[in-house]
Structures are given as structure tokens and as C-alpha cells.
Amino acid sequence: MTTQTLSPTTRSTIRRGKERAQADRSALYAVLDAGLICHLAFVAGPGAGAPVVIPTGYGRDGDTLYVHGSTGAASLRAAAAGAEVCVNVTLLDGIVYSRAVFHHSVNYRSATVHGVARQLTDRDAKLAALAVITNHLAPGSWDYAREPSKQELAKTAVLALDLGEAAVKVRTGPPVEDADDLVPERNGETWAGVLPLCHTWGEPLPCPELPRDVEVPGHVTARPGPYRQETRDSDG
User: 86, 79, 80: which is closest to 44 by C-alpha?
Assistant: First the structure.
């Protein structure tokens, strides 16, 4: 695991709740590797344009993040044309209940990446990136299922975004309370704490057109139950 630190820029520097910023690049990798869906944001349109946010699957290979979509999507064409983009992945780990509504919060891990995406046009590079995305969302599927045909590959746009400009923010632990709210005589009967959120995979549902004798492959059944693990140490 790398111990390289993040190098914040003006726009990637966390100012609000800066005590929750994570400086090590391994924290960025951990959030991206734990998530499944990212939100790709950019400004599209003439002049000042309008903000656009797209939820999409992704995959990480080293310090490069890959996203893909249809070549017919105007949104991806705009991002591929050199527009500044911003990608966010947020993992919700729990709801934080305080003795005061003002201090209710959430425990989360969040990574935000800024930069200019580049479109991959080389066939081998596109296939390699699609393998990364596929195996991130559905591990083992790239070698199990049919690869994209020439026509399918032509219809698919793949964007690569460097992870050089990024920020990570994490909140863990119990609520942060005002001293007055901790007086038993005032809020002694008010419950406070954390309700953890844990996602689990269900039983695989076969395609209706699948023959009855086709078993669920090992790379599907091998996926662990919980795919989110809440960080339980407190940040104060």
C-alpha cells in the first residue's frame, strides 16, 4: 500500500470540516475501490453552460479512473472534448443521531477528483479500461462473458481521468454535542448515537431465458455478504 500523500490544489483543499480531511493517497484508493457508482459532473452548453451530473460505473487502475458510456451521449462527448470535470464517490456508513437536531449528521467516506478527462481511442487501451470497469463492478466477468464486438466497441466511449488532483473526507464516530446538551437534567431521556448502514448482496436472480441447468458461476457466488464496512474509530 502506498504512503504517498495527496497534494491539495486550491479547489481540492478541504476547508469546511478540514479536520476530517485524509492526507494519504491510500485513503483515496480505499474509497474508490469500495464504491461502485460515481457521479461525473461538468459544465456543458454554449457560453457559461449548465452543470450536468451523471451517475455511472467506473474502475480504477493505479492513478487513473475510467468511466464509460455511449458515444451518442452528448454529455460524454462534452466531457471528452476537454471540459473540466469533477468526479465524486461517497459511501454512507451510518446516520448520526444527536441530542439536538442541529448536530444530527452522517458517517461517510467521500472522494472528489478534479481534472480534464481524455477519451481513449486505441482499441487495446479501450479494452483494457473496459476490463478494469467490468471487473470493478462484477469481478471475474471480463474473462467469463463475451468481450465487446467491433460494433459494440465503436458505440462505447471510454474516458480516463488522472487522480492527481483529489480530496478525501471522512466522518466517523458518535455525535458531537454541545456541552449544555450533555447535562442529564436537560436531555437525560434523549437517545443519541449512530445507526450503522450495512449493504449486503442478495441471492442471485437468474435471467428468465437462462436454461435451468446453468449454475451460478463462482465469481458471482464468491462476492462477500457486506460490501461496505463501517469505520468504527472516532474522529472526535
Answer: 79
Residue 164 and residue 115 in contact, taking contact as beta carbons nearer than 8 Å: yes
Rounded to whole angstroms, the Cα distance separating 174 from 172 reads 7
80 in a domain, yes or no? yes
Rounded to two decimals, the pTM is: 0.88
Is position 55 within any domain? yes
pLDDT at 3: 58
Report residue 129 as a C-alpha cell.
479500461
Report yes or no on 49 lying in a domain. Answer: yes
The model's pLDDT over 94-104, given as tens digits with 9 standing for 90+, comes to 999 999 999 99
CATH number at residue 171: 2.30.110.10
Q: CA dist 199 to 74, 95, 114, 145, 192, Å? A: 33, 14, 28, 26, 23
pLDDT average, residue stretch 131-160: 96
Query: Domains in the chain: how many in total?
Result: 1
Q: For residue 9, tell me if it sits in a domain.
A: no
- Among 45-54, 101-110, 115-124, 204-213, whose mean pLDDT is lowest? 45-54
Phi and psi for 66 in degrees, rounded to 5?
-115, 135
Over residues 42-58, mean pLDDT: 81
Domain that holds residue 28: 18-176+194-221
Across 83-224, the runs of DSSP E, i.e. the strands, are 84-97, 105-116, 118-119, 156-162, 165-171, 193-196
Question: Dihedrals φ, ψ of 30, to 5°?
Answer: -60, -45
